[in-house]
Amino acid sequence: MAAMHIETPVGTLEVEERDGAIVRLGWGRGGEPVATPLLEEALRQIGAYFAGTLRDFDLPLAPAGNAFQQAVHREMLAIPYGSTRSYGEIAERLSTYGQPVGQACGANPIPLIIPCHRVLSATGLGGYSGAGGLDTKIALLKHEGGFPFLL
Q1: Model-level pTM?
Q2: CB of 119 within 8 A of CB of 85?
């Protein structure tokens, strides 16, 4: 497994690759960086996202998770930049309930790229498992202009 780091407005992010796909994005540094062309492209795209010049990531992804979590990942990937969905809306599409959707969002191993920050509760922000918690979720939503009353 190879990993590289990038400084962003929401902290230091570490991106990991395994077998030609991104498998994890987390906060902090896990060790010495090991560069690969895919990781260099991932860091370029993350930098462009925060610079406001990229709205859609185009990277091979291989997030861990069971079949239900994979279905939630696909639903999150379908949420356009600057838009949001509720846990309930995703649950309805998957014929389930909001709580398991929230749990799958919280288990997302590739936040930002798989945009769990775009998933909200019916009455507010919901949660966010990334470093900084809701402050990070708010910063990402503000960056995208996707939650107007926060602006």
Answers
A1: 0.94
A2: yes
